[in-house]
User: Which sequence fits this backbone?
């Protein structure tokens, strides 16, 4: 299934006259003039960046071959790797004796149309398992010799979730099939997640970000 529904502002050119763009109407007003009689005014903005998609999936498993947390520079908000036995931020060049750590769980999620990798972010994992990366690292039973995949995370597998992902430029323009979750509703939260007020909130939030043409697994609910 293709989601090539809208053109982007970036793609506009003189090759044709008709384009399909998404806009948000911020204000619509009616007026009247002596010459033209009734008229209607619109104040609209073009929506043109990325979009959010909500999907109901089963977490088959977390990919345990990749590390479940990352070291990062809090100032630049980018991950940093150990190079020459030191952690140095590639952007601000700061060297960290002990860098900040956050979850970076890669889940392999399936619905009846296929499987996609979805990365779970720190905030959502903490909320779901009730532990920070530091809590787990400090717990010998969780990590044993350091290589064991933590039980607290393992318990999040094999369950169905409502996951809201961000579809980015990389996904649409560069063909990346790896998505990042912004919101993950656990099985026990999924009823509450469908309440009218929650839905309204997520729609408003989703409308504030924008849209790219894309191809991605079907059966995902798009908010416009
Ligand atoms: Zn930095």
Assistant:
């Amino acid at each position: 299934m293709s989601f090539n529904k809208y053109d982007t502002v970036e793609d506009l050119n003189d090759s044709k006259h008709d384009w399909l763009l998404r806009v948000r109407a911020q204000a619509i007003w009616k007026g009247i003039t002596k010459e033209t009689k009734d008229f209607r005014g619109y104040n609209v903005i073009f929506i043109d960046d990325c979009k959010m998609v909500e999907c109901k999936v089963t977490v088959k498993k977390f990919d345990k071959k990749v590390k479940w947390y990352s070291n990062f520079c809090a100032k630049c908000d980018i991950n940093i790797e150990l190079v020459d036995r030191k952690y140095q931020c590639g952007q601000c060049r700061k060297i960290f004796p002990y860098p900040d750590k956050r979850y970076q769980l890669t889940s392999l999620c399936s619905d009846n149309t296929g499987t996609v990798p979805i990365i779970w972010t720190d905030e959502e994992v903490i909320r779901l398992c009730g532990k920070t990366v530091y809590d787990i690292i400090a717990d010998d039973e969780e990590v044993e010799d350091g290589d064991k995949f933590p039980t607290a995370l393992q318990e999040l597998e094999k369950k169905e979730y409502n996951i809201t992902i961000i579809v980015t430029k990389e996904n649409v323009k560069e063909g990346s099939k790896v998505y990042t979750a912004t919101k993950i509703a656990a099985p026990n939260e999924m009823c509450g997640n469908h309440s009218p007020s929650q839905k309204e909130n997520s729609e408003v939030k989703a409308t504030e970000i924008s849209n790219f043409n894309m191809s991605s697994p079907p059966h995902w609910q798009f908010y416009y």
About this structure: The pocket of zinc ion is lined by residues 73, 75-76, 89, 91-92, 94 (CB under 6 Å). The longest strand covers residues 51-62.
